[in-house]
Amino acid sequence: MARDEPAAVPEILFNPPAASTYNGVEFLEFAVDESHGARLSGWLQRLGFARLGQHRSKAVSLLGQGDIKIVLNAEPYSFAHSFFEAHGPSLCATALRVDDGHQSLERARAFKGQPYRGLVGPNEREIPSVRAPDGSLIYLVDSAGPGESIYDSDFVVDPQAVAKGGLQRIDHMAMALPADSLDSWVLFYKSILDFEADDEVVLPDPYGLVKSRALRSRCSTVRLPLNISENRNTAISHALSSYRGSGVHHIAFSCEDIFAEVSRAKEAGVPLLDIPLNYYDDLAARFDFDEEFLSELAYYNVLYDRDAQGGELFHVYTDAFDGRFFFEILQRKNGYVGYGAANVPVRLAAMAKARNVAARQARL
């Protein structure tokens, strides 16, 4: 009996279009309805964001601070609306700043990625985009050149809007994934977007283990830890339940002065994650800190880490918005490149305590 010949491999897979050079995250887009959009906008403004503008024809608002742009999309009959109906208030799109968006899209096509083309209104700019494995979108935005920006063309921008805080850029985002989907996400980012993957690490949650593998662009301006857990009550499992699937559950913003930023956030009423005082007793045993500095860390709920090269990380977390996603404010010093793995156990324990308190209050 004659054998079937194996299918020919498309030649383009051996010579795909070159990957783009990345220059960070251009914007994050949240799918919201009117109510959640107003509340999330309030949260962000307490974090120092300014309301920069309103879309010319859609129920879409733009907030910003430093190099950070956040879009809140409540437009009916849109991709964001469908995403909201499926997952609730959540990050539905990430826009990456690249040197050639159309070349990036051709590379995605070569690796059998799924390009997406939404409805584009009059005088709006069409941005190349591709679907991520969970159906969310990744926009591929050309780095700013001559002419108006994507915000000038699509939004009525308020020239008087000024951010109140000192947050600078999106340092990283973290995703909660079903345990059996990690490999497909790693393959997607490595092949289509030419990201690199760090080694997997195992992190302790009070209710089980969390496995994490961080992805990053080759220039490290875009960083995305992917988290999975096979235990039912971990923070990752709660995120998956809230989203009814995968979702970004953690967004980190960088700054130059952690204490100034957290002081301003506390004064504005940002709900910060409460860190137990015994954590700071442990810090005193690990590092040669004076009492005044330790007291300042404890007062602001700031976590601290130091690497073998002397790099330092100062970071603080907000409570979760609607029990779903939370924000991190961080400051890196002396070339620190990690994510504060030494602090993950205390952070996850503090989050578990906050969830339990919220659950008890909800039953009252």
TrEMBL record:
InterPro entries (UniProt xref): 4OHPhenylPyrv_dOase, 4OHPhenylPyrv_dOase_C, 4OHPhenylPyrv_dOase_N, Glyas_Bleomycin-R_OHBP_Dase, Glyas_Fos-R_dOase_dom, VOC_core
Names of required cofactors: Fe cation
Keywords of this entry: Dioxygenase, Iron, Metal-binding, Oxidoreductase, Pyruvate, Repeat
Domain VOC: 24-143, 169-319
UniProt superkingdom: Bacteria
MF-aspect GO terms: 4-hydroxyphenylpyruvate dioxygenase activity; metal ion binding
Annotated GO biological process: L-tyrosine catabolic process
Annotated family: Belongs to the 4HPPD family.
PANTHER family hit by this protein: 4-HYDROXYPHENYLPYRUVATE DIOXYGENASE (PTHR11959:SF1)
Protein name listed in UniProt: 4-hydroxyphenylpyruvate dioxygenase
Natural source organism: Pseudomonas amygdali pv. eriobotryae
Lineage, uppermost ranks: Bacteria, Pseudomonadati, Pseudomonadota, Gammaproteobacteria, Pseudomonadales
